[in-house]
Design brief:
It is built from 15 helices and 25 strands. The protein is an alpha+beta fold and 513 residues long. The relative contact order is 0.11. It binds one RNA strand of 78 nucleotides through α1, α2, β11, β14 and α11.
Length: 513
RNA sequence: AGGGCUGUAGCGCAGUCUGGUUAGCGCGCUCGCUUCGGGAGCGAGAGGUCGGGGGUUCGAAUCCCCCCAGCCCUACCA
């Protein structure tokens, strides 16, 4: 076998041992996912608490990036943050019939406090519709109090049977928007508006393409009239429900007696919505971009944009190299990455890795952490007034080692990040296209979902829950959503892929996380 | 919740079947010297409730019981 001359050959032979091993995706995708999280120092399983995770600083910093961008978008659309109790009186949960049925199996309940049994147990919130409904009832009495647009950043707990880091943990961090409106039309507009906020965020900030759609009756939120969602394709062809936006109708308004007096003086129940995204997004980020060398981060969610690795041998070189590193960092520090009309200013985050270990070891480490840009500064570079640049992933934003005049590099840095961001989205979209198929026969369908395989399949469906369940039972694939206008193939009638009965349009089917 | 696999140092593992002195190995970690543009070399070190509890035994990482946790497959699930 011919030996590759590229450095990658040597690297592969040494992946176990120093640091941990990252299992290649083709070998074992779930193991790869866990390896990336461990080696990227994103999180670890709590172990001492079932199903929970410890989010480590680098992982949490990504969540903070996500939070900050979304928070600005919520405020931009008129929402205000508030905070409600973690514990909810058990009786609240039971007030909305469908809601309690949906959540009862996964509730954690506090039965004792202060050394005594509680008269009425508290539920640890799995979501806050009920307790927020209670307060909405107190806050709303007139149409002048509407719309009421509230968001909460919080943790919630759902006792899931099976957990996976970031994707489904017992406790997770999220935001939940809760709004109340005087008409159903207005509430529906809000539901759509926030779904689009999520969709835009996923694509623009996370560089994660999504399909926007409507959940089927069996997949919708417990207690909602309907649920909109964004579904993101992962590298293994499975779908990740990355965000949901629910039309709650008047269900919770009735359950919690949230009434308002209209302009005409009539009493009516409010129309409510709720919408949320969670730390699951971090899992989606990992499975959208990362590779066998570890984490890959789009610049807009990267806690660190660039790492500078000083290269030197002799003591007298050291000072000059460190000085150059400090100068380059200072120049990069000044670069403003803020988006137009942003509520917050964002500057380039740079780390100079001056630890006394060999450069190669640093390269591997920062690659595993997903830092977009690596800069090497050595005596030769200083002599030539240049920097050596290597992007985390080869794209149009940069390929291989580039040697660039320092001033040009600084001047082009923001553009480089923007292009890299765009390239990651382009690559993800291309992959989505290759994973997306239009299927018309059940044989094709069975083949596409054989074993552990999954694709994004556009198929006709007769619209019945029975067929939906049959598809799931036979293939483990589920109807992810009925696409919104502009998503997926243009609607045209056809025949259900399983039953042959008439279908008005194709729906998205995939295995799901 | 059912089935399977697993739990020994930070990470990855051997040892368990067939019980027996101070529980090993690789990497990582600490110190020293030489090194430093893709995971350095040599030398000297540190680091362990063998997941937890109970039992059998002269003696348990090893055998038995219970529990906890993780991974995979079902089932369940915004």
């Amino acid at each position: 076998m011919a030996k590759g001359k590229g450095s990658d050959q040597g690297a592969k032979q040494n992946t176990d041992g120093i640091g941990g091993k990252i299992t290649p995706r083709e070998e074992d995708y779930p193991q790869w996912y866990q390896d990336v999280i461990r080696e990227g120092e994103l999180a670890e399983t709590a172990k001492v608490v079932k199903g929970c995770m410890v989010i480590k600083p680098h992982g949490y910093a990504i969540w903070e990036k996500i939070q900050r961008d979304l928070d600005a978008r919520f405020k931009e659309t008129g929402h205000r943050n508030a905070y409600f109790p973690l514990l909810i009186p058990q009786s609240f949960i039971t007030k909305e019939a469908e809601h309690v049925e949906g959540f009862a199996p996964e509730l954690a309940v506090v039965t004792h406090a202060g050394g005594e049994a509680l008269e009425e147990p508290y539920v640890i919130r799995p979501t806050s519709e009920t307790i927020i409904g209670h307060y909405f009832a107190k806050w709303i009495s007139s149409h002048r109090d509407l719309p009421l647009l509230i968001n909460q950043w919080a943790n919630v707990m759902r006792w899931e049977k099976r957990t996976r880091m970031f994707l489904r943990t017992t406790e997770f961090l999220w935001q939940e928007g809760h709004t109340a409106h005087s008409t159903h039309e207005e509430a529906r507009a809000e539901v759509e508006r926030m779904l689009n906020v999520y969709g835009d965020f996923a694509e623009q900030v996370m560089a994660m393409p999504v399909i926007r759609g409507v959940k089927t009756e069996s997949e919708k939120f417990a207690g909602a009239l309907s649920s909109l969602c964004i579904e993101a394709p992962m590298q293994d062809g499975k779908a990740l429900q990355a965000g949901t936006s629910h039309d709650l109708g008047q269900n919770f308004g009735r359950a919690f007696d949230v009434q308002f007096q209209s302009e005409e003086g009539k009493l009516d129940y409010v129309w409510q919505t709720s919408w949320g995204v969670s730390t699951r997004l971090v899992g989606g980020l990992i499975m959208t971009h990362s590779d066998d060398a570890g984490l890959v981060l789009p610049p807009r969610v990267a806690p660190i944009h660039a790492v500078i690795v000083p290269i030197w041998r002799k003591a007298h070189e050291r000072d000059a190299v460190f000085e150059a590193c400090a100068r380059i960092k200072a120049s990069l520090d000044e670069i403003d990455l803020s988006q137009p009309r942003s509520r917050y200013r964002d500057f380039v985050e740079v780390v100079v890795d001056d630890r006394p270990i060999r450069p190669g070891a640093k390269f591997y480490e920062w690659e595993r952490r997903g830092v977009p840009v690596r800069i090497e500064v050595g005596p030769k570079d200083i002599a030539k007034g240049q920097v050596c640049v290597r992007m985390r992933v080869d794209t149009a934003a940069g390929t291989g080692k580039e040697f660039i005049p320092e001033a040009d590099f600084i001047a082009g840095f923001r553009g480089r990040l923007d292009l890299y961001q765009a390239e990651l989205l382009r690559i993800a979209r291309e992959r989505m296209e290759t994973q997306t198929v239009t299927l018309d026969t059940w044989d094709e369908f069975l083949a596409a979902f054989a074993g552990d395989a999954s694709v994004f399949a556009w198929c006709h469906w007769d619209g019945t829950a029975e067929t939906e369940a049959a598809i799931k039972e036979q293939t483990k694939a589920t109807i992810r959503c009925v696409p919104l206008p502009g998503q997926g193939p243009a609607p045209e009638p056809g025949k259900c892929i399983l039953t042959g009965k008439p279908s008005p349009q194709r729906v998205l089917i995939a295995k799901a996380y």
